[in-house]
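Worked example

This section walks through a single chain of length 556. The input is the sequence exactly as stored; nothing has been trimmed or padded.
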Amino acid sequence: MSDGKAQIRGVAVPWPDPWSVGAVVVAALVLVPILAVAAMALFPTENPWPHLVATTLPRYAGNTVLLMAGTGALAAAVGTGCAWLVAMHRFPGRGALAWALLLPLGVPAYVSAYALVDFLDYAGPVQTAMRAAFGWVDARDYWFPPVRSRGAAVLVLGFALYPYVYLMARAAFAEQSGAGLEVARALGAGPWRRFARVGLPLARPAVAAGVAVVMMETANDFGVVSYFGVQTLTTGIFTLWLQAGNAGGAAQIACVILVAVALLALVERVSRRRRRFWQTARAQRPPVPMALEGAAAWAATVACAVPVALGFAFPVAVMGWHALGSGWLAPGLLEALGNTVGVAAAAAVVTTALAVFMVHGVRMTGRALPRALLPVTMVGYAAPGAVLGLGVLVPLAAFDNRVADGVLALTGWDPGLILTGSAAALVYAYAVRFFAIAQGSVDAALGRIPPALPMAARSLGRGPGATLRAVHLPLMRRSVLVAALLVFVDVTKELPATLLLRPFGFDTLATRVHDQASLERLEQAAPAALVITAVGLVAVLLLARAEGARDAPAPL
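Given that input, the structure is written out below as tokens.
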């Protein structure tokens, strides 16, 4: 052995360094829940697949596909349309609406669902006012569309998730060449033709990426569909596992979700395989927003204000009204807040630290295996929370039981379930679920650091660890903090994985909102919902600030 290499049959093979080994371990930790779900699906203790196919699976799959398609279409229309108006036109209120359109990201979709049902249900103010105004006695005297329905779920999810499309589409429109749009205008193309023939085709990859995120979040949703009584693949996991006690059947449904998400990503990629878009190498002039006048200007203002009203102002107003009662003094709220802050902070620190370790190790060592595994770790974000909950709980529970049995046999003391009996399983699931967010932010931050700086540190004798501490961390400190904050905020809103993995008697703000709203106690659910929304708004404001620093539209 010499120069860090081992001689194997006369061939020098480099020893694996700690950074490469650590990167492989991190990737393995992310993939274990997915592999566990696949193993349970392939080798169930009892095979419920024929019964599922003959009974409930078609309904679960059909509702899921319709929800994903409907929500994706609505989010694409709202997000792309508002992005085009904000990026390419000037109208009253444009400066404020440009960032206000991001506000629905701060409101969990299930909170909007509770607010909609409370406002439009039979005992809500709308139907109560209708009966009082027209003298109707009960629901048999008039027709009102069903509030808890698949269509209502599409509306709630669409207006809650459209900011993903808006954010990506607005950036794509702002980066387009103003010369191309001016040429189209000079050739007689009106506003709609410029949008359909020039703007939208160039922004299509960004729009498609945003829609894919929306559809994955729709497949992950549990709070909205369960409250509206819509049976989807996600609710099927809860039904088969928690009610029927069939982990194998739940794993098979989870694999259906994973296959659907993978097909969604594949179809999107194949659909644009032969479409390629490049920007010219020379500097280009950004598009100059056109001023709208008269009715068109106010129509644009209304078109951008409606999504903000429906996705943010309406649910916050309804929950704020209910929060005026005694819900703030209800027992358990402070405990749920403490639990939420504790697990979210732990998950943010763990996830960000693992992302920094892996991305830095891959960049500094350049080994082929860690570099190949880096994109694989993104799979956790595509896996719904219910799938990860199933994949985390079963292997960890088996590990806990073996450890407890071993300790009991050796010492006579039963330690109980160390991981699944505490919040450790929750933190692990959150780290897997949101690792892609931290990894993407850290990778982008490292990519902005000139290679000469770490090379200079290495030439002065600094190892990878010292280079990370002395060069990389000081330069990307802000990006790391933003990544940790985004993970923190997403953890506070996560519901499916929390419901499956929380220890007995352990409530977070999300589970408290779900439990109280399921019992129609909105006065008790409203304070927790508002706290979650307030935390989410912090991330939204950071996003708005970051986007504004790059391509903020000029205020009127």
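What to look for: The radius of gyration is 26 Å.
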